[in-house]
Protein 1
Amino acid sequence: MTAVISLDHATRRYGDVVALDDVSLEVPAGELVGLLGPNGAGKSTLLNLVNGLRPTTSGTVRIFGADPRVPASRIQLGTTPQETGLPPTLRVGEVVDFVGGHYPDPMSRDELLSRFGLADLAQRQTGGLSGGQKRRLAVALSIVGRPRLVLLDEPTTGLDVEARRLLWDAVREYHADGATIVVTSHYLEEIEALAQRVVVIGHGHVLADDDLATIVGRVSARHVRLRLAGDARAVVDALPGVVDATADGDRWTILTTDSDAVIRALVTQGVTFSGLEVRGASLEEAFLAMTASDDDGDASSGAHVAPSSSPSDQTQGALR
Ligand SMILES: Nc1ncnc2c1ncn2[C@@H]1O[C@H](COP(=O)(O)OP(=O)(O)OP(=O)(O)O)[C@@H](O)[C@H]1O
């Protein structure tokens, strides 16, 4: 069966920047794929090749077996870019009817708006919607034509927790109807809520492509910070899952794929420590962990002690 999306050695350059570098990827019908990666990784570029907005520099991209640059290939495609503009004086229902009017069998405005919890807002001018409501409407519009393929670029950025969950439910419901969906995100939490398969992109490359559970395990990097007396380098080198370790005096910052195992090892070995903190690592650091464990093939190998760098954007829980 023809894959819904097929990239074959696709490369996209912008001048000197290689935004996507020799990526080959197939997405069969019915998959819900998460594209996860830090800023500038190449996620939007990949979507823009798939939705026909940009040509490849080399290599090929196909949707439903056809060239996405040809408009007729995109009749089964729905997409929401990172930023969308809605005509401020049109009412929500009018926008739905207008966009739906371009498709042979559109969803009714009632069905579409109720799927996204927007039914009460059908008569509201879009200029009077909150930022979160506008975002939900923009994502809703991507499915008004009942597309078989949906591309969502960071669909829930700027949404509060409730609006995010509502939108995730709507996306899952549409996927359950049989659609193939690709969603990009910085948020591991979002990818966990939606995706079955996760493709991790970094520096224009596919770093990993696996089922959700496997990827979540691999990007769950943590920073362990603590004070260790004396020359502790040998102790740190022997700790499990250590990807990176820096010392500022007696204050150590250890990036590890398994913070529980690090703490257990310290306690079991009777190592004296103080000021213990365990924090989520940034997504970039999680990717460092991922590639480091690829490099040595064994996450439990000894520490690589690198020059000090202080992580700036750590967020507890969700990785950004
Ligand atoms: N139109 C463009 N002109 C020049 N460079 C571009 C253009 N679009 C993207 N790039 C560059 O290509 C690289 C990949 O960008 P892209 O937007 O695909 O990443 P991303 O993973 O979607 O990032 P983000 O999560 O920040 O949206 C970046 O270095 C970016 O600066």
Note: The CA atoms of residues 219 and 287 lie 6 Å apart.
Protein 2
Amino acid sequence: MISLNRLSFYYRKGNPVLEDVTLQLAPGRIYGLLGRNGAGKSSLMHALCGLLFPKAGEVQVLGFKPGERKPAFLQQVFILPETFQVPNITVDQLIAVDAAFYPAFDKQAFYQYLEQFEVPADAHLSSLSFGQAKKVMISFALATRVKLLLLDEPTNGLDIPSKRQFRKVIAGTLQDDQLMIMSTHQVKDLDNLIDHIIVLDEHRILFNASVDEISERLLFSQQMTLTGDVKPIYHEGSLKGYITITPNNTSVPSSIDMEMFFNGLMSEKQQMLALFNH
Ligand SMILES: Nc1ncnc2c1ncn2[C@@H]1O[C@H](COP(=O)(O)OP(=O)(O)OP(=O)(O)O)[C@@H](O)[C@H]1O
């Protein structure tokens, strides 16, 4: 569905943002796009929906070049930016005006999501807090039923109960012909939510693998001491001793601590990547 071939991009010459990025993404999955602040996550998402144009290389999405912004492409893609300004209208007016751009828009689902988020359906957008407005926009994004859904830092601005609601709403919404990419630097928020991880670092793809593969290759465990047979690749102190990452030499997939994984990858790049030989 998405094919990036040697994509490069910069805002100012000499300051690369994306360099030689090659990537294939398939539908039916939720991808987590991870990276430190400024790694280029938003820029990559903008390249996928035609908001910025590659300086070199090719981007193909759903058989289109996003930069051409053809209506048949735009009605199948939705990006929810990290921050936005809401128009001075009611929720109902938002649906009446904007839903028309998305032929598969599911109005009933929209109101169901709003209910799950506990946002009143008769609210005036400008009277909502940023977090509430974000929940309206997440509901709108999911209800568009577009083929490619890009959520840039979707949990930013949500309080802890809202993050729980977010997880509930997202779980089970994706259909087989849809692809969702969620970017974040708050890696913990995506625990148990994504199928596949892509990590951007130093303008390039550092890591690209499914969550299943990670849980087969790495073992996340709690240990009282660090004196076991196998020296951990990475460890962090916890209340009960240490959480460690070691190679998974068992035949049982490990449950993943997403934040530990990201920290471990950033800290011990070579050792971690060596376990994923592709
Ligand atoms: N409009 C712009 N003009 C110039 N430079 C920009 C612009 N937008 C982003 N950049 C720069 O491009 C780089 C990548 O930014 P981008 O927003 O894509 O990163 P990000 O990974 O999404 O960051 P964050 O996690 O902080 O949202 C950063 O160094 C940023 O300063």
Note: Residues 11, 17, 35, 37-43, 185 surround adenosine-5'-triphosphate (CB under 6 Å).
